Amino acid sequence: MQTKSRPYFTTMTDRRQYFAYGYCRLSREESRQGESGSISTQRQMIEAYCEQNDIALLDCFVDDGWSGGNFDRPGFQAMMRALETGKANMVITKDLSRLGRDMRESSYYAEQFFPENQIRYLTISDNFDSEAENPMAPFQFAMNDTYLRDVSSKVKRSLRAKRNAGEYCAAAPYGYSKDPNNKKVLVPNEDTAPIVRRIFERAAAGDSCIKIAMDLSAEGVIPPLKYRANFRDNFSEKGAARASDTWNHTTVKRILKNRVYLGNTILGKTRKVNVKSKKKVPVPEQAWAVTEDTHEPLVDPDTFEKAQRNMGKASRDYRQYDHVRKSIFGGIAVCSKCGHSLCSSGTVHKGEREKYWFLSCNHTRKDLPDPCTGVNIRYADICEIVRQDLNSLIALSDDEIDTLVRSVIVNTNSRLNLVDKKTQIEQAQNRLTMIDRMVSKMYMDNAQGKISDDRLERMVAELEKEAHALEAKIKELDVEDPAEKIQENYKKFFALAKQYTHIETLDRDTLVTFIDRIEIGEKILPEGYVKMPRKNASYQQSIRIFYKFIGEIVTEPVRELVPSNQRPA
Questions:
Q1: Strands (E), 286-384
Q2: pTM, to two decimals
Q3: CATH no., domain 18-152
Q4: What's the mean pLDDT in 144-163?
């Protein structure tokens, strides 16, 4: 806001007239602490103060349910716009914490912005006056900032405990409502649950997300956001107007990917950048808070898996034709270089199709900066490799499985170096505690005149820089002991494996039951060759198989292969 010329009335000490704006703020966390700091109490204190001191109170701006961590609040911003008109020359709050809890921002407005714009800022409870000396102000700003961080930490711990207990502490997803008798539990919504079931059934049958969305729109089914605007959430008139009456294929896809419909509580998919920011960033899937069997599922696991398998593949558009090669590896076999899915390719020679059937990477255009070359594999070869690998795992005895699990745990612990990392985390946390004490001591010394403002600012800035680096280091090193998770995942995988005795022919259902993805690398030809020799010759190729729950088992993914059409009869 630009400094404006205004009729500057006399100060209070000279009995000048003041025209003031009051400002009240209360966060959701603070509202649980009782009436003493409520909005109505703050407003009454400001009104009484203005009446006692002959101050004309023009308006009172309110932010109810807003954190003091940042200043992008509707009530505060409305007050700032009102100040630009020049009608008021004073701002009053109950105390400094009502203005905000961010140390830098609060100090900037109270000690720089308001005075530079000829606006006097007063607090009632802690006697701050922008036109007077305020020796304790730095310490007050620091304490408010510390309170903000402490509350944020408590809220995070509380949410983490609720998530670990399987409580659904978020808005109910489409298809569910909160149980009227227990708001922490989801129950099927009688209006929207049937729609969710229909979406999964149609996707499992092979319908594309686009076709499902078009049919739902044609039938007049209300899409999720519109349903929330009309029947559940308190949307503003402007917000409700933005909600479309038409289904979008991305909405359908989002529903199909959400494992909440299997009866699982999945939370913590995003997090705030920090305590003072409203921006949220995605969290890696392995770090989500997942609790199984917390509410009634809307879809069974088999239908869910079929829907995932068919999503985006429009399977019914081509599987009806006999002459089309029907690869079982769609969306599973990918190029290890570029990550694109491998596509069926090949020719027909003398009526023979299987022999000349390949999976190849089509990311080969010459105009691409780094095109793929040589990433293909004979379809019959990859089928046989995967079949043999699966049979070798199915055949493992209980003792062999235990040995495998112990080996994986040892290798994982060695790779992560957990003992050393825990020591580093403890050292970093101890240093952070010391930094907090040092900062508090500096503010006390500054208030007592032992440290100048300039020196305080430099020292605090250096310590804050070090603290940010330590927090980043802790986040990077904070790796949980993986032993329990590894044992649990291997137990899940071999529970599936025990349902099979031997796989004679690999099919799509078996493939998606056991495998997440297969990464195929380029062929490594025999020395001296630039293309595959016509006579019998072996070559090497990297084939990495990532299994459900347990990931990659093979430690040497480069395999020695002989083309199936060149093997001796």
A1: 289-291, 333-335, 343-346, 357-360, 376-378
A2: 0.39
A3: 3.40.50.1390
A4: 62
